[in-house]
From TrEMBL:
The keyword DNA-binding applies. PANTHER family: DIOXYGENASE, PUTATIVE (AFU_ORTHOLOGUE AFUA_2G02910)-RELATED, INTRADIOL RING-CLEAVAGE DIOXYGENASES DOMAIN-CONTAINING PROTEIN-RELATED. InterPro entries: AraC_lig (IPR032783), Intradiol_dOase_C (IPR000627), Intradiol_dOase_core (IPR015889), Intradiol_RC_Dioxygenase (IPR050770). Residues 221-394 form the Intradiol ring-cleavage dioxygenases domain. This is Protocatechuate 3,4-dioxygenase beta subunit. Signal peptide: none annotated. One of its GO terms (molecular function) is ferric iron binding. It comes from the Bacteria. The keyword DNA-binding applies. It comes from Paractinoplanes brasiliensis. Belongs to the intradiol ring-cleavage dioxygenase family. Residues 5-177 form the AraC-type transcription regulator ligand-binding domain.
Length: 398
């Protein structure tokens, strides 16, 4: 599997569909098209022409340029600034999904479908007009989309969507390359080399592949330490004699996607304490506190006894904190257990699990909580019992 990065994760997680709703080609004779604005319909264009945005001076678009007016303000695309524009909605929506010829092929405009990926937060961070510097890299997908939409051969919708997705990624990448990142809001998280690890922390949500059937994947995050003590049954996590927090029994089973139990599975588990702190990260906590490795039983089940971890905030004083504040979000992550599960001939599963009765599940600062990662909790006296069945993907063999 390829290593991933935050922008890829965002595009994959949120941008599963990035449709093109239609477009036009233009060139011969004077023409002009007015777009009404509103960010739901960004337009991708290339070719020579004029961009007339409300409140801005007319701007000449050169042949090698590609722009993406993100559509927040009304604008006109024209061969000549003096031409009376036609309305894009009437022009394009009269023939949805089609390429409308305006007389030639010197300029190409593509209208992105309303509400289709990538993450709207990414689009919110774009300036009104994006200039893509590396035009050859995006020229081919545009030409191909126009070709597909014009020809409508079998499979055209699928192919169009794939190229649209790649096109959006290139546009976003171009913005990340060129933009003053101090002013890029949320988007800067995807670009800044120093911020990537921090983003991985708060955005601890992996790309979900449609081809996986195992438990959802996660990232190790910054609080993992290799080499935790090996526990023996009954598995009790290392803890201080006066460790605060309710007793938590975490139990369940581990299976392959084919349904067979995996008794050779090994677990590496780490968690915050009842104050939301990790050993090895915060002074004063004994080494390896609430970190341990243990094995599955002969029937592929497992059980470990620990304490209930607490929610904790992501760092609020750095850039992550300022971005979350910009977005009007709190800094807390819901309480969770980190696990890495291995078994022979199976992919490593790195995962974070949340508690069904926990706080912040719907507003995780890391936006990482998903169905399938929330464990039910049963209360028996003073003891909390959480249950989860892990499913590991078999390794692909040649
Ligand atoms: Fe954590």
């Amino acid at each position: 599997m390829l290593e991933t990065d935050p922008l890829s994760e965002a595009l994959t997680t949120y941008g599963g569909r990035c449709g093109i709703s239609g477009g036009f080609t233009a060139g011969e004779g004077p023409w002009a098209v007015r777009f009404r604005g509103g960010r739901q319909l960004p337009v991708i264009v290339r070719g020579p022409g004029w961009l007339l945005a409300d409140g801005a001076a007319p701007e000449r678009l050169e042949n090698e340029g590609l722009t993406l007016p993100s559509g927040r303000v009304p604008f006109v695309l024209a061969s000549d600034p003096g031409v009376e524009p036609r309305d894009a909605d009437q022009l394009l929506h009269s023939r949805p999904g089609l390429i409308v010829p305006l007389g030639g092929e010197q300029m190409v405009g593509l209208i992105r479908q309303a509400g289709s990926g990538p993450d709207e937060r990414l689009l919110d961070a774009l300036p009104p007009v994006v200039r893509v510097r590396d035009a050859p890299a995006v020229r081919y997908p545009i030409d191909r989309i126009v070709h597909e939409l014009s020809r409508r051969a079998p499979g055209f919708a699928h192919i169009t969507e794939q190229y649209a997705q790649a096109l959006m990624a290139d546009v976003l990448r171009s913005v990340l390359d060129s933009r003053d990142l101090a002013d890029a809001g949320w988007l800067r998280l995807y670009a800044d080399a120093e911020l990537w690890p921090a983003l991985a922390l708060i955005h601890d949500q992996p790309a979900e592949s449609a081809h996986r059937h195992g438990s959802p994947l996660g990232l190790l995050g910054p609080f993992y330490l290799p080499g935790a003590p090996r526990l023996e049954p009954p598995n009790v996590m290392p803890r201080r004699p006066d460790e605060k927090g309710e007793t938590l029994i975490f139990r369940g089973a581990v299976h392959s996607t084919t349904g067979e139990p995996l008794p050779a599975a090994e677990f590496d588990m780490w968690q915050a304490d009842a104050d939301g702190n990790y050993s090895g990260m915060v002074p004063g906590i004994p080494p390896w506190n609430l970190r341990g490795r243990f094995g599955a039983a002969a029937d592929g089940t497992f059980e470990v006894t620990t304490i209930q971890p607490a929610p904790y905030p992501v760092p609020g004083d750095g850039p992550i904190g300022s971005v979350l504040r910009e977005l009007g979000r709190h800094l807390y992550r819901p309480a969770h257990l980190h696990l890495q599960v291995t078994a022979p001939d199976h992919e490593v599963l790195t995962i974070q699990l949340y508690f069904a009765d926990g706080d912040y599940l719907a507003s995780d600062a890391a936006n990482a909580v998903r169905d399938g990662l929330i464990v039910p909790v049963e209360l028996t006296g003073d003891v909390r019992i959480a249950t989860y069945d892990f499913v590991l993907e078999p390794l692909l063999t040649e």
